[in-house]
Amino acid sequence: MNIWPGDMYPLGAVHDGVGVNFAVYSEVAEMIELCLFGPDGTETRLQLPEVTAFVHHGYVPGLTPGQRYGYRVHGPWAPDRGQLCNPAKLLVDPYAKALTGDVIWGGEVYGHTPDDPDHRDPRDSAPFMPRSVVIDHSFDWEGDVRPDIPLNDTIIYETHVKGISMTHPGVPPELRGTYAGMVCPAVLEHLTSLGVTAVELMPVHHFISEHALVQRGLTNYWGYNTLSFLAPHGPYSSAGDTGGQVREFKSMVKAFHRAGIEVILDVVYNHTAEGNQLGPLLSLKGFDNRTYYRLDPDNPRNYVDFTGTGNSLNMRHAQPLQLMMDSLRYWIGDMHVDGFRFDLASTLARGLYEVDRLSSFFDLVHQDPVINQVKLIAEPWDVGEGGYQVGNFPPKWSEWNARYRDGVRDYWRSADFSLADFAYRLTGSSDLYEWSGRRPSASINFVTAHDGFTLADLVSHERKHNEENGEDNRDGTPDNHSWNSGVEGPTDDPRITEVRSVRVRSMLATLMLSQGVPMLLGGDEIGRTQRGNNNAYAQDNEISWYDWAGADEELTEFTRRLIAIRRDHPTFRRRRWFEGRPIHGSGVTDIGWYRPDGSEMEPHDWEVGYARSLAVFLNGEAFHDVGRHGEPISDDSFMMLFNARPDVTTFVLPGGLGSDEWMIEFDTASDTAPEHAVCSGDQCELSAWATVLLRRVPGRRAVDAPEVER
């Protein structure tokens, strides 16, 4: 078989209609062999004939899409210097667009011998390794158009490709748990009827299960254990894993776009599946360990670990940065995704040790004309010292706002001194984001996410129940703060069930009425439970899969109504910050804060530790904006009443706010809202843990509206 010099770019394996060009980076390799596998598994080895700027490359005529391949790297084995070349080990192409097969765990996939990490293991790992696959890049997008939904109008639905469809009766059995299953009419109709505008998919980069999990009979269900940054996860494909996963993923994205839903990927560029110095030799380690990973400068055999997984990618080096950027551009350009949520994003921005807002990572993303046009969301922390960076990411970035999660939870469990923080979170967290020139849409608001309790479990369990993970319940976040539910776990007591239901609805209402971008944990709208497991990363079973048969239809309908209110009223998704003072000299304030007795909040009221009831006025007369094309936007006025108390609280509706009449839009303690109006000065009783939204009936205007700001 012939091999020609070929080209150094693009990296990876690229079919041009006549043959395939192969290119892979390594500074340390003395020679790299391309390993081609036939249908019967026979291996043909060809030395890549050229090296240009550390890129080893070659062109093989006659190869076609579907060709399976890997690499073997010849070079130094010197663990004390961080060099781990071992030609006995078949390596996955870092730029592979598809992988077929899985890692079969055993000593063969480790670079070192079982009893001596300094000694190179001579056993061939090829029979135990997945193969990289040459793909056909062609695909008929049929004029696919991105929804391009503004951030302030975005409603994110965080979900798992497999979990959402595994038990859905409307999904054909052969499509359950797949990309195709996600866009089956039954699942797609659920998402569109909810009104969400984006799905945030938990990791779909090809991942593997850790050796320790497999030994316990478990798997890595969540997928935060990446092996290939450009390949969609093969087991999620109903069309096979020899290229079919690429076409099926593209078809899924196209279907979502036709439904007006964007696709955001949860991406894990902070670490890989190769673990620490005792981990397997699967890909980057074997190509160029010192280039791709952060090594301890005092002892290069060890890794610097900011992620809690054993390794951290070395984003101070140009090549790992290029790998990440090429991956991002590929998923945008070839796969048409609309944005990314960066797992443990603080790790990517670390200099020597500290998180650096001026790091190369931020500079590259900021300047890239492709990447800086999509939605960029950071998980703004890692597990290293100084890794908690909520509020500190630069412009153009949004952040998972953990302060929102904690503040809203604290308020609804009646924690002392939570009222002022609750007000900040409700209005977009200006204390975190306004100083850097960002808008309320910088805050990705969430109460629950994949990592932690579901919303149903949050109000039902006083402690975590992770026993089935096989770690003696030591894993996961610390035990939950008390919610004073009176009973741990499921109960048949209708009083406790009702209290829990009201709290769930109040937290959902808070989420959808808050400024910023709401993120709904998929399944919370149907009452999904994980039986108290707050770290279900290894539970690829009914614990994690959606229980469609047991779906709470009333809660689903309530969630639809909340999302519809947010969609129909721009007051709840402002592009600008509240000013809390007269607008444009009109005498009309855009927001007002009131005690239950109807009087305005005074500064000392915010400091009262036991204050747990609050009325918030959103003035539609002061809300004047323009749309993307200059169209004027105005809205109704609203009053939000919050009662985070275990007993009924009486609110007096304030006067002097324009019209005297208010209609109740919803009451989280009631399935149906009263159809009669209430008036200023009336008393309005809120049940324990309840939220009520009132809309002002159009009538006498407080003042003439100011001119539209353009």
Structural account:
- By secondary structure, the chain is α+β, with helices and mostly antiparallel strands.
- Strands 14-15-18-21-22-23-24-25 form an 8-stranded parallel β-barrel.
- Among the domains are: 401-577, Alpha-Beta Barrel (TIM Barrel), CATH 3.20.20; 579-696, Immunoglobulin-like (Sandwich).
- α9 (402-412) crosses α10.
- The longest helix has 20 residues, at 494-513.
- A hairpin with a 5-residue loop joins β28 and β29 (632-633).
- The protein is built from 14 helices and 35 strands.
Main sheet characteristics: 8 strands, parallel, barrel
User: In which range does the helix fraction lie?
Assistant: 10-25%
Tell me what portion of residues adopts beta-strand conformation: 15-25%
Strand tally: 35
Sheet with most strands: strand arrangement = 14-15-18-21-22-23-24-25
CATH class of the domain at 401-577: Alpha Beta
The radius of gyration is 27 Å
By CATH, the topology of the domain at 401-577 is TIM Barrel
For the termini, the CA-CA separation is 67 Å
Average predicted local confidence, pLDDT? 93
Structural class, by secondary structure, is alpha+beta
Instruction: Tell me the overall shape.
Output: elongated
CATH architecture of the domain at 401-577: Alpha-Beta Barrel
Name the features.
35 strands, alpha+beta, 8-stranded parallel β-barrel, about 700 residues, single chain, 6-stranded antiparallel beta sheet, Immunoglobulin-like, disordered C terminus
